[in-house]
Amino acid sequence: MNINLTMIGQAIAFFIFVVFCMKYVWPPIMAALQERQKKIADGLAASDRAARDLELAQEKSAQELREAKQQAAALIEQANKRANQIVEASKDDARKEGEKLIEQAKAEIEQERNQARDALRAEVAAIAVSGAEKILETSVDASKHNEMLDKLAAEL
Amino acid sequence: MAGSASEYIKHHLQNLTYGKLPAGYERADGTVVDQATWTLAHNAQEASDMGFWALHVDSLGWSVALGLIFVILFRMAAKRATSEQPGGLQNFVEVMIEFVDNSVKETFHGKNKVIAPLALTIFCWVFLMNLMDLVPVDFLPQLFHLMGADYMKVVPTTDVNITLGMSLSVFALIIFYSLKVKGVGGFVGELTLHPFSSDNLILKIILIPVNLLLEGVSLIAKPISLALRLFGNLYAGELIFILIALLPFWAQWALSVPWAIFHILVITLQAFIFMMLTIVYLSMAHEDSH
């Protein structure tokens, strides 16, 4: 067990290895470790965020679906109402049209009746004239007159 | 396996030593060196006569080679380090680094960029050096014997020079950080005014040598205990492997296998203890505890 230079040699080698380890081994591996740690933490945070986003999106889509359903219901109701209105309106129109037609027909009938009456009157006048002529030409006979007047009345 | 059991054991515990023999030294084979020469020792006596100016080529060689394996392996992982999905090597290196980082963070609460890489280097390097203990004791020495090397001790941590070299480096760091954090006055005060202190100035001065002795011993004990704990454990383990190797070859496995399995625990534990104590000592150096 001799104490000799080996001790110094070992101390020098020790120093060199420690410095090498300190400069070229420790820092890169520590950096990689820390970077990986950060990456994993970031990844976990991102997955949390994604899960939260998913939940939000699901909620939102459910809400939108609900709104769409409501809108559709409202639209259908509106359309029904509108259809009823249209039917009512056309019924009204039809009734009005019918009344107008009836009115028109009545007016026409009235007019025709008036015309007929006028024509009758003219004819009655002509007949009266012709009757009067006949009476003037022949003797006026009451019975004959009556007979003629009856005829006249029948003709009216 | 030539010679007696005692020779076999001694041979296994002898380092391959390259050192300086003084002028006029008579070598083992009877030749006398004319002037001071640097050469490989041919036996234990020569190695010990070389004194301080000698290198244990085997210990240092294996230790540097294992250290290189560690830094190259970890550098490869560091170069390809990615924050994406890691590969097998990166996984392993990351596990090691997180383990060391957690150990450091549990004990040391200040800010220091040296301690964590230092602890990593100590743990991996000491572990690899200890791991050489599990290579069968005769395997590598025989291989190197064929290549011409007389001695080959393959477990660097069974060489007290290696463990002392590391623990004294740690000791230097302890002194450095003590001075840096507490200042010269604070450090000297810590050594001289505690644990015994008094409000009386004269008594305080009288107590200084006592405190210095106590604190000085506890300070010096840190690197010594650090080095000798690791050395002692591994030396003992190695010695038991050598003793087991003295048994007939067909009986060796019955003892060497259980001992090797137990030793896996020892080598890991000793590497961990060396690392943990280094962290503890350095965090103590950073704290103004008094």
Automatic annotation (TrEMBL), chain B:
Location relative to the cell: Cell membrane; Membrane
Recorded topology in the membrane: Multi-pass membrane protein
Record keywords, A-Z: ATP synthesis, Cell membrane, CF(0), Hydrogen ion transport, Ion transport, Membrane, Transmembrane, Transmembrane helix, Transport
Principal localisation: membrane
UniProt record, GO biological process: proton motive force-driven plasma membrane ATP synthesis
HAMAP family linked: ATP_synth_a_bact (MF_01393)
Homology family: Belongs to the ATPase A chain family.
Protein's name according to its UniProt entry: ATP synthase subunit a
GO terms of molecular function: proton-transporting ATP synthase activity, rotational mechanism
Functional note: Key component of the proton channel; it plays a direct role in the translocation of protons across the membrane.
Cited Pfam families: ATP-synt_A (PF00119)
TM region(s), chain numbering: 60-78, 114-139, 160-181, 233-253, 259-282
One Gene Ontology term, aspect cellular component: plasma membrane
Gene: atpB
InterPro entries from the UniProt entry: ATP_syn_F0_a_bact/chloroplast, ATP_synth_F0_asu, ATP_synth_F0_asu_AS, F0_ATP_A_sf
